[in-house]
Amino acid sequence: MVTIRLARGGAKKAPFYHIVVTDSRSRRDSGYIERVGYFNPVARGQEVRLHLDAQRVEHWLSKGAAASDRAARLIKEFTKQNAAAA
Q: What's the predicted TM-score (pTM) here?
């Protein structure tokens, strides 16, 4: 099964997450099919906290990919954020 989930990067005590499409059986930070965005929980000032390629996320969800709990919340937050900006 294909899932949309977070892959951790960044330094110790300074996390940075890539939002990736991957096989559900693979490890958290191992290879992935496609990178569709990123999440920076410690963003400050003008740094971007959350960025997604909404078209690619919708594409994978329409193909049957399941989003993890955290990824689903971030997708919802991003769509709400973009709807308010438009």
A: 0.90
